[in-house]
Specification:
alpha/beta, 273 residues, binds zinc ion, 7 strands
């Protein structure tokens, strides 16, 4: 069976539901955690479906429709650039009951000028709030950019903008397993420059929670080998039933992994200040 198709995604959702997990949006997770001040308000078993819409918003819309038919609610993060920001798609996804958030990269868009980047962030947030009362945001990793967009929060606080969560800061990764399809596999943390949780990865690997294919995750769900709380990050542009688009994503992602691997090795070799 081909991996990273909508059909495979459907099987993954089915396995999650059958294993007894509740679907939470990231906003719901933050709200429940905030309300009780600890994890007690959260369901015993839950999954957060996070989608970073880097490009091809129509693919995100198809994914959102599939989730809606299965009764799952997810969080969709859109970039401000036109490769992601498609008003019609955003509207439709919000109407299906999903959460909309801002996938920000203002530091790289503003060449590291944090004042300009903050202003840019505020304007983009305002823009996305016409579609949905946005309460969470999530960094775009921008592997080719030297700027880490989280650096904005060394100077400003997103909480001042009525945002209650940013996954890199507000998920308790001691309790929540993080699985991402970055690199077009589920163990791409080796290639990823920013989309990873280095503090926990070794512990997760030791627990047997490192997977390459979606099939492996489905099998782990079926045999109840996964922990009680999981955040899945997917990039909807990868998940397609169309053979041409699927092959295109396979080939470009393999090339990207090669470059990211080299960048990552080079950065690791640089002496730490
Ligand atoms: Zn992204």
């Amino acid at each position: 069976m081909r991996d990273f198709t909508l059909h495979t995604y459907e099987l993954l959702l089915q396995a999650i539901a059958e294993a007894g997990y509740t679907f939470l949006t990231f906003e719901q997770y933050c709200e429940l955690k905030q309300r009780t001040g600890n994890a007690q308000g959260l369901p015993e078993r839950f999954v957060i479906l996070r989608h970073d819409v880097d490009k091809r918003p129509l693919y995100a819309q198809r994914m959102a429709q599939l989730e809606a038919t299965m009764g799952a609610k997810a969080s969709y993060y859109f970039r401000i650039g036109k490769q992601s920001n498609a008003p019609e798609c955003i509207r439709k996804i919000a109407a299906l009951g999903h959460e909309i958030g801002y996938h920000y990269e203002d530091m790289s868009l503003c060449q590291g000028d944090h004042n300009k980047a903050y202003e840019h962030f505020c304007q983009a947030l305002e823009y996305f709030r016409q579609f949905y009362p946005v309460r969470t945001c999530c960094m775009h990793g921008a592997p080719m950019s030297q700027f880490d967009s989280r650096a904005l929060w060394e100077h400003y606080s997103y909480r001042d903008l009525q945002l209650i969560g940013e996954p890199y800061y507000d998920v308790d990764f001691t309790q929540v397993l993080y699985l991402t399809d970055t690199g077009r596999c589920w163990d791409g943390y080796r290639y990823s420059l920013r989309d990873k949780v280095p503090a926990q990865q070794q512990r997760w690997n030791e627990a047997g929670w490192s997977f390459h294919s979606t099939d492996e995750i489905i099998n782990a769900l079926k045999s109840n080998r996964l922990p009680q709380a999981i955040m899945f990050t997917t990039h909807p542009q990868r998940w397609t039933n169309s053979t041409g688009a699927w092959l295109n994503e396979l080939i470009t992602q393999n090339a990207k992994n090669l470059i990211k691997g080299m960048l990552s090795t080079r950065r690791n070799q640089q002496p730490q200040a």
